[in-house]
């Protein structure tokens, strides 16, 4: 109906290409325009100015010979002031962009190892964007953004990478566990050493107290009982301790069978052995 009335409507974010007798005449902005068909003028087509997106999936291989699928997302739009170039110079815009993306990705990714490709996605995207911007600007298109949205290696490669990562983490966990056990053992050894040291101090103090007690007993007995020598007092003390020991062995429910010489002569022999040992120790200390 608009063509019969020599009028045409152009929607928002769209431009129309007007021809006269098959030759480009002008670019029509959004709105209503007079189109006298009898003068040979007609609308050859419309061109959207909206932002468009093209997802390109490209298979290539890395420097370490791993095949990957690189998924690139290209956001582009036609320029209003170059609408005639965008309409006439390219017959299939999406195929042209895809060809440039394939060319750049297959030239960039083979220079990188697989791990580097994951780390340098931004550099790959920048290289694709620069090449597209340089090529597509001549055809009236603007490259707004280029994104490398995914790099997909083969399933077996991904499984191997996960196993390598898991093995590294298990090794680190084993090292941490060994360090923890080492610290526990060191602390336990330090605790045992400290306990033995304190036990030794206790035994030394106990023996010192026994010696001090015996000395006081000998001195007190010698003073209170005239004519008694230190030897007599020591013999009596040893006999008393001997019978106390025998009493403890007999009273203990967990005591084993113990065979020792018993009698006044045996006690005298034990006293003699102790006294001889003390005398020998004193002699060695003097020399």
Query: How many domains, in number, for the residues?
Result: 3
Mean pLDDT over all positions: 80
Report the structural category: alpha+beta
User: Roughly how many Å is the radius of gyration?
Assistant: 53 Å
Query: What is the CATH top level name of the largest domain?
Result: Alpha Beta
The shape is: rod-shaped
* CA(first)-CA(last) distance: 138 Å
DSSP, total strands: 8
Low-confidence stretches: none
What is the CATH H-level superfamily of the largest domain?
A: Band 7 domain
Q: Please, how many helices?
A: 7
Would you give an account of this structure?
The protein is of the alpha+beta class and 287 residues long. It has 3 domains: 7-48, no CATH class; 52-153, Tetrahydropterin Synthase, Chain A; 155-248. It is built from 7 helices and 8 strands, in the order βββββββααααβααα. Pfam families: Band_7.
Task: Kindly summarize this structure in a few lines.
This protein has seven helices and eight strands. It is an alpha+beta fold and 287 residues long. It holds the Pfam family Band_7.
Question: What descriptive keywords fit this protein?
Answer:
287 residues, 3-stranded antiparallel β-sheet, alpha+beta, 8 strands, Tetrahydropterin Synthase, Chain A
Topology:
Layout: E1 7-10, E2 14-20, E3 23-28, E4 31-34, E5 41-48, E6 52-61, E7 67-78, H1 83-88, H2 93-108, H3 114-119, H4 121-136, E8 141-153, H5 155-224, H6 230-251, H7 264-286
Antiparallel strand pairs: 1-4, 2-3, 2-5, 6-7, 7-8
Helix pairs in contact: 2-4, 5-6, 6-7
